[in-house]
Input
Amino acid sequence: MTDKDVNVGIIRFPGTNCDRDIEYAVNLAGAKSEYINWNQKDLSDVDVVIIPGGFSYGDYLRAGAIAGNTPIIDAIKEFAKGGNPVLGICNGAQILGEIDLVPGVFIENENAKFICESMKLKVNTTRTPFTKLYKKDQIIELPIAHKEGRYYTEDIEQLYDDDQIVLSFAEENPNGSLENITGVCNKEGNVVAVMPHPERAVEPLLRSTDGLKFFEGFLD
Output
């Protein structure tokens, strides 16, 4: 299978607003892509699933809560269960937490404010399809943009034992996340949830190309 044969399904909910950014990044990396709406139930034509950022259903109730009860969710769970790559970014990460595909949750920032800035991050594991091209403990720079990005779990020791911490803040912790964590994966490593936006750091014009490997990794 060549890079151009890899088809990425980009999931869209009412309120998703980073879908075109993901499409651009995926195509730049060399893969194909298609949009898949919340009310669809078939993922048989895609090789990778990415859930973009945004404010699905206006973030009513909790961020990602309503999206977690839509028809596409069962298909995503089955897709992930088959060992296929799934990436949730920002609101997508919140949704993955809501549907228990990754451990823990992303809750309101400690200061209850929306934070939008570029951050230094540490790559804690390279065993996922999206971080395999980085080096362990490599410092990269990606932007964050969230009000509900503070990571919390009651099973922090389990995350360390099973190598499930994907990204952590390398310097300042802007939102109060537990142990500076801002990205996690499931035990198998094929489902990844990150709050930073790698799709916003894929070419020099965007101030950083550090995010491009997120989208090249599953092609390697």
Observations:
- The CA atoms of residues 10 and 180 lie 28 Å apart.
- The first helix runs from residue 19 to 29.
- The mean pLDDT is 95.
- The two ends are 10 Å apart (CA to CA).
